[in-house]
Structure to design on (169 residues):
């Protein structure tokens, strides 16, 4: 149990021959009591200050803990957002690739269809040209036959007969 200033003040020493001067001892004890009281007061102030500092430290530790948790939550949210964005971008890329494949396939199908139509038109043009050539050649053959002059002469004869018939009647 620590000494109190009152313990020091009430302390009595046994008396002996040629002992210390009692007034000097009492004066010294008074000084010790004063210093001891000052030390106790300073100790209380330091204890109070230590409590205040400890409360502030606890408060800042709580803030630090809250900030740490907040940072962790923010980091997790950022990671989740990043992962979602990555997944979304992958979906967009897949959709774009799918659309690109569809467009390419449609273009290839149209190209094949047009190529088939061109081939069909070429065949029809060739058939038409052959038929037209045959027709023209047939007409030229008809024109080159001798029957045309006989037909023209026959027409003249018919016209002359009609004229004669008109003259008679």
């Amino acid at each position: 149990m620590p000494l109190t200033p009152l313990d020091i003040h009430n302390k009595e020493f046994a008396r002996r021959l040629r002992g210390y001067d009692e007034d000097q001892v009492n004066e010294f004890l008074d000084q010790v009591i004063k210093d001891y009281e000052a030390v106790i007061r300073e100790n209380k102030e330091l204890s109070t200050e230590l409590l205040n500092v400890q409360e502030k430290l606890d408060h800042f530790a709580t803030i630090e803990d809250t900030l740490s948790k907040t940072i962790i939550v923010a980091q997790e949210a950022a990671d989740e957002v990043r992962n979602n964005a990555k997944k979304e971008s992958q979906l967009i890329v897949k959709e774009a690739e799918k659309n690109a494949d569809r467009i390419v396939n449609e273009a290839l199908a149209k190209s094949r269809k047009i190529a088939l139509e061109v081939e069909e038109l070429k065949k029809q043009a060739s058939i038409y040209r052959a038929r037209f050539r045959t027709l023209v050649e047939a007409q030229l053959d008809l024109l080159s036959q001798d029957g045309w002059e006989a037909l023209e002469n026959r027409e003249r004869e018919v016209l002359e007969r009609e004229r004669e018939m008109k003259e008679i009647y």
